[in-house]
Amino acid sequence: MTPQERTWRSQFGDALSDLTPGVALCLLILITFFLIACFAPWIAPYDEGAILTNDSFLSPNKEMRLGSDYLGRDVLSRLIFGVRVTLFLALIITFLSFFSGVSLGFLAAAFGGRVDSWMSRLNDAMLSFPALMLALIVINSLGSSFAVLVLTIAFIDMTRVYRVARALAVNIMVMDYVEAAIVRGEGKIWIVWHEVLPNALTPLAAEFGIRFTYAILFISALSFLGLGVQPPQSDLGVMVKENMQAILYGEYTTLYPAICIAFIAISMNVFVDWLLQRSSAQLPDEL
Amino acid sequence: MPGQESLALHAICDHSCIDIRPCIAPDTKGITLSLLEILVKRLLLGLATLLFVSVLVFLGTEILPGDVANAILGQGATPELIAQIRERLGLNEPLHVRYLVWLSNFVTGDFGSSLANGADIGTEINRRASNTIILAGCTALLAVPLSILLGLACAIKPGGLIDRVITSLSLALISLPDFLVAVVLVTIFAIKLRWLPAIASIRPSYEFFDWVRILILPVAGLTFTILAHMVRMTRSAVLNVLTSPAIEMAILKGVPRRRLLLRHALPNAFGPIINVVALNLAYLISGVVVIETLFNFPGLGRYMVEAVTNRDVPVVQTCAMIFCCVYVVLNMTADILSIMANPRVRYQK
Fold first, then answer.
1. Which tens digits make up the pLDDT trace of B272-287?
2. Are strands B347-348 and B31-32 parallel, antiparallel or unpaired?
3. What is the per-residue pLDDT for B8?
């Protein structure tokens, strides 16, 4: 198949027509979780911080559909607010890392030469640092707040996004239609925006999904270690951590948030896998 | 028949299992380097990476709002006491001098003492590192053969039932948070069935059997965190070899399927698989931190998490350096192994 120039609209139409039932289900799950996150205050039966009973780890009952947590708060309500915090943090992180990673990667590919080689070398050096260690060091120095978490994880993600975006752009920059644009006298920025971006869109969308899942797992792991989101705020990882003793009482309280994370992440990965298979013709080899 | 001459060439390749295509292709302007030169180059790059990592660790932990002197004294800090401690710890020296002192101390094994309880970090690290090595070692012994077997099972018939089941299971496993599998395992085996302990604290009186009992759940949990990645990467490494022209030729010659896999494909896939193993052992680092915290296992990972919680800077620096060194060395090993296994990588453009 010869690579064709793609426009924004044709890509979207193609995608909708190849949707398989499994992938559609996963999309539905993702959309449901997003709606829950958006409308949390109206859906949740109680306030997330309200202590409703003196009993920890009550079994699920009529008033509290998933029982109570270690402080006697409603697990269902906390779960709904937890999904909200986790998803929104992950979204902000992914948008930040994408905006910076893709712009830097594309510019490196468009300018080439010394700019490209120095930026890539610096990026490779950053990649030699285990992500969790970087996060732990920053949190050790600055403490854990939403801003520190978001900026640190976004920075870690940016190095990964940069690599993918640059590899994609390098492959597109040698296409005939880019050469034609250069001969027409278009500027670098115009080429990146009108030629490189539309043609890299599907693999980038897949990468967005991968990064989003990664951000969710990363925040949850940090919160689980007690170093992520700090009380009184809570996300899904914090809920897993604080309800660990529930297992001792034979309740599954700690599993509910973990299962929510798993559902979101699995759905996203299935969706991404499907996107990648569709776009495998466009993917450069070195990924 | 298209590609007649290349088929003949691969018939020769097929016997030796080594790529003997001419090293200098006409359209590239490369030079061939000797293996030794490449290895030395890679080792130097690894050393440079370690230095870069040490600078980052140092800067990341030293540039605190407020400094170590404040952290030691806490509430009872008076300006005189702070000045005294700054003097004693050498905090008044310029940054690069402090870095060099810190680095030379680290390299010679002098890690200083903990801010939280004044204990010598070296002895604590010794004790905990051996626990972590046992945990990670057992996991590697279990996960590596298992994932290679599963990956091979997938690659035998891509798109077949076994392949589809294992690939979709591993896709699901990749998406699970590190702690989920461990929490489920604890619920089943420690709480419901009461077969194994839920907490893996270690007493000096423990004998071999006690060790086995406490290690089973953490090792199983940790294995799941790296298994899926390894299976998927092994699968694609073997499939990559299976689609090579040399194997195509063997199929055309009528080599039986089993012999094809074991005699022709496996030796060629060996390099990529070892590479996969080394890369994934590097993934163990974040897994170790989470699993040790979950099981209260007295290893390096939990030591570091506790230190970050207490802002115990020297401990954080030491642990971070150890983990980063292991990571860099594993990545470097993966690179070197793949260079040695694949003559084509030696040829640089």
1. 788 778 878 877 888 8
2. antiparallel
3. 32
Chain A residues touching B282 at Cβ < 8 A: 130
Tokens of A285: 């080899």
As given in the structure block, the two tokens for residue B283 are 């993934």
More confident residue, A237 or A3: A237
Query: Of B186, B294, B323, which has the smallest distance from its Cβ to A130's Cβ?
Result: B323
As a whole number of angstroms, the distance between CA B184 and CA A70 comes to 19
Distance of CA B245 to the CA centre of its chain: 32
State residue A280's pLDDT score.
62
Q: What is the mean pLDDT of residues A45-50?
A: 76
- Structure confidence by residue, pLDDT tens digits, A239-284: 888 888 777 777 788 888 888 998 999 898 888 888 877 766 444 4
Q: Which helix (H) or strand (E) holds B31?
A: strand B31-32
A128–B52 C-beta distance less than 8 A? yes
Choose among A137, A213, A259: nearest Cβ to B60: A137
* Residue B114 DSSP symbol: -
Q: List all residues 6 or more positions away from B293 whose beta carbon is below 8 Å from its beta carbon.
A: A224, A225, B301, B302, B305
Q: How far is A265 from chain B (nearest CA, A)?
A: 5
CATH number of B122-349: 1.10.3720.10
Q: Which residues of A touch B290 (CB under 8 A)?
A: 221, 224-225
Q: Across the interface, do B324 and A225 touch by the CB < 8 Å criterion?
A: no
pLDDT above 70 covers a percentage of chain B that reads 81
Q: Which residues contact A88 (CB under 8 A, 6 or more apart)?
A: A37
- Please tell me the distance from the alpha carbon of residue B29 to that of residue B348, in angstroms, as a whole number: 9
Q: Please report, for chain A, the start and end positions of each structural domain, with discontinuous segments joined by +.
A: 25-39+66-282
Query: Which residue from A minimizes the CA distance to B71?
Result: A141
More confident residue, A43 or A223: A223
pLDDT at A53 over 50: yes
Ordered by start, the domain boundaries in chain B are 48-110, 122-349
Q: What is the CA radius of gyration of chain A?
A: 22
Residue B4 in this model has a pLDDT that exceeds 50: no
Q: Are A181 and A190 in contact (CB under 8 A)?
A: yes
A25-39+66-282 CATH: 1.10.3720.10
pLDDT for the residue A33: 92
Distance from CA of B188 to the nearest CA of A (A): 10
Q: What percent of chain A has pLDDT over 70?
A: 91
Q: Can the peptide bond before residue A232 be classed as cis, meaning omega within 30 degrees of 0?
A: yes
Sequence-distant (6+) residues with CB within 8 A of A215 are A89, A90, A93, A94, A97, A153, A157
User: Which own/partner contact pairs does B195-201 have at CB distance under 8 Å and 24+ positions apart?
Assistant: B198/A247, B198/A248, B198/B295, B199/B295, B199/B296, B200/B295, B200/B296, B200/B297, B201/B296, B201/B297, B201/B298
Provide, as residue numbers in chain B, all residues whose Cβ is less than 8 Å from the Cβ of A159. none
For residues A188-213, average pLDDT = 85
Top pLDDT among A52 and B51 is at B51
Beta carbons of B227 and B146 less than 8 angstroms apart: yes
